[in-house]
Design brief:
With about 475 residues, the chain is α/β, with parallel strands linked by helices. The chain is about 30% helix and about 25% strand. The protein contains 14 helices and 24 strands.
Length: about 475
Amino acid sequence: MDYDLIIIGSGPGGYVAAIRASQLKMKVAVVERAEIGGICLNWGCIPTKSLLKSAQVFEYLTHASDYGITVTGEVKPDFTAMISRSRNVAGGMSKGVQFLFKKNNIEHIKGFGRLTGNNKAEAEVEVEVEAPDGTSKKYFSRNVILATGARSKELPNLKQDGKKIIGYREAMSLDKLPGSMVVVGSGAIGSEFANFYQSLGTNVTLVEFLPRIVPIEDEEVSKQLERSFKKIGMKVMTASSVESVDTSKEKCRVTIKTPKGEEIVEADIVLSAVGITTNLEDIGLEKAGVKIDKGKVIVDDYYLTSVPGIYAIGDIVHGPALAHVASAEGIICVEKIAGVDVEPLDYKNIPGCTYTTPEIASCGLTEAAAREAGYDIKVGKFPFTASGKASAAGAKDGFVKLIFDASYGELLGAHMIGANVTEMIAEIVVARKLETTAHEIIKSVHPHPTMSEAIMEAAADAYGEVIHL
């Protein structure tokens, strides 16, 4: 036996699982063919937030006079420097995970890992790793966790060429700022990139197939973000679809089907942000007998697949494709393997964050979903226009909206849009975990002046006790 645990993939699911397994005294190896930290750390969560911060600083400088500051000379974005900073941030984080691997005696096996199906016994799984030089080596482990993640999804009529029609990876490494861009898809990835490029001066057209942008969010949040986007000059097209893209000339000619008919938009770049596709190809699932359903690996509450000793976590299993979800799944999985008494993950209490300006954060049921579920509800809402901290910060767009069960005061859902709300949503997650009621939130003293006061005020609004409205 070579290892107690081999993990294929080093993203936020894989590397977190590896560290927790090492803490539990397992001998661990991680198979990774690219950068340690996976897509999230190297080409997703971290570098995009770096770019968005650069755009925010640029926005502050262009509105310096609003804060009583005079800036002499022209303020303009250095796009190349922004990209370089983003790559450096990602590189530093990747080195940090490599340090954690050494600290926890985790072996990094560089290459492409796959299951062979040639297991020695029920709990002795064989993994073949193809190294970058083409040579292969086989390893045995008591357990294997598949954490291979996902990649940008391609539509048949929106084939990515990496130059004119691009995915998220190319979007954060362009060599120059495009003059115009069509962003297809308004989920978190699409909205964040649309916001970033529009803030720097690119003329962005955001196209969403569904009736509203950020469609999984509460309807009022969607409307607020659309207003904020239009305020900075972005063109937003909902209930619309990209039918074709002609890349034969210097600019892309994008044919868009709208409720009013077809419209052609010319742009330097088309960014496809229509979702993700799981990385399940050529990792030996069929040989090993691992069952899949609709492009996802079937697992139990503790991430065991249909084959003993083989587990799967993250984007390749059913559930939200979020970094923090993958990390939580990885910890639960290895603790179960180690015999720790663990509870299944509560997928109804997962926070979602979108790092646009204004930010979006949510957890639990939307107002519409709560009504559809048959709840008698109380809804409280507190706008940041009434917040002293938001006024002082010059960030009055947005609100906090809370949904309670009228019978028991249970917090069913929270939906926020505004500055720093991604930092505020954790209070909601903890409150829901502890089954906190509305009156307990109202009677919990929140510091003043803060953005987080809006949570207390929204709860008070639901029960007719709000002070500052």
